[in-house]
Write a structure and sequence with these properties.
The chain is mainly α. The chain contains 13 helices and four strands. The chain has three domains: 125 residues, Orthogonal Bundle (Helix Hairpins), CATH 1.10.287; 121 residues, no CATH class; 36 residues, no CATH class. Strand 1 and strand 2 form a beta hairpin. Helix 1 runs antiparallel to helix 5, helix 1 crosses helix 7 and helix 7 packs antiparallel against helix 9.
């Protein structure tokens, strides 16, 4: 059963701010996609070289384009930082031609993006002030910011959506169900059917999925290791949802205990359950055609194995 309660007024005000901020961030993303579409229509393949078409170097190049600069060498010379190493690729990517009407459209899109960024910055300031007016909200945001993948903006949204009092939720599982991140349990006559998650708080779920995607690509973390392990068995999409669920469970305990996240390391599960790891490695070797025989050793240790090479080796 999902917990039902009316949040206090300060939390409802913070929720309004974070949701409107999310809306403006989405509008900005839409405009960035339109910028990429305009560039593609002019055969300017900037996105094929840079990771962010609205980064510092990209903005300098785009400003020069709308100002009338068309020389690929000059445009590539505006690259900064590590992107300077890709000048030859940039020159090839900037061989297109920007027509006057496309230059006008690009100018308007860039102006709208800049305006939205200023709006988001003002919302950020207002959200920080709203957190400061709540009891220990700023402290909880700082604690949540220690979790891999959860930046300050996501931490603000978590506080706005679930609050700082975890006693309202009977357990972390109840919170996950309320957020729509609990695995489905549809079983009939001993047969497991769809395991899709239920519908829940779309604002919270979306933010956690984005945080999970960021956490999945972080180095040397237990969460990234968990993502890789699940993705190898069930695919990337299900692994992201599973990681979002893990992030919410971690956030629940971080808020409940008022303690920062403690990183366990990417080899944590391998150390705590070496026998399961050994069995997984045996299966992989068997799939490659090896004949593997395990022998018991000291209790709790990963059993040593005898491996026979496959025929024809």
């Amino acid at each position: 059963m999902r917990p039902s309660f009316i949040p206090p007024r300060p939390q409802r005000e913070l929720r309004d701010l974070t949701r409107y901020r999310t809306t403006f961030v989405r509008e900005r993303a839409t405009l960035v996609n339109r910028v990429q579409k305009v560039l593609e229509s002019t055969n300017l393949k900037l996105a094929s070289v840079v990771s962010d078409v609205m980064g510092v170097s990209s903005r300098a190049i785009l400003a020069a384009l709308v100002a009338g600069e068309a020389d690929p060498a000059v445009l590539a010379g505006l690259a900064k930082g590590q992107l300077r190493k890709k000048r030859p690729q940039l020159e090839q990517a900037l061989q297109g031609h920007l027509y006057p009407h496309q230059s006008f459209v690009l100018t308007e899109l860039l102006a709208q993006i800049e305006s939205l960024e200023e709006t988001v910055a003002r919302f950020d300031a207002q959200i920080r002030e709203a957190c400061d007016r709540q009891d220990d909200a700023a402290q909880v945001v700082a604690l949540l910011d220690t979790i891999p993948g959860i930046a300050q903006g996501t931490a603000h949204l978590l506080v706005a959506e679930i609050g700082t009092d975890m006693t309202r939720f009977p357990s972390a599982a109840a919170l996950a169900a309320w957020a729509g991140l609990a695995p489905g349990n549809n079983e009939s006559a001993g047969r497991q059917r769809s395991g899709r998650t239920r519908k829940g708080n779309v604002w919270l779920r979306t933010a956690l999925v984005q945080a999970a995607q960021a956490a999945a690509h972080m180095k040397h973390t237990a969460l990234a290791a968990r993502y890789r392990r699940i993705a190898a068995r069930r695919g990337a999409k299900k692994a992201v949802i599973a990681l979002a669920h893990s992030l919410l469970v971690i956030a629940y305990h971080v808020i409940l205990r008022r303690q920062p996240y403690h990183e366990l390391g990417e080899d944590y599960l391998q150390q705590t359950d070496p026998r399961t790891r050994a069995q997984r490695l045996v299966r992989q070797l068997s799939q490659l055609g090896f004949d593997v025989e395990l022998h018991s050793s000291a209790p709790g240790d990963a059993p040593p194995a005898t491996v026979a090479l496959p025929a024809g080796s």
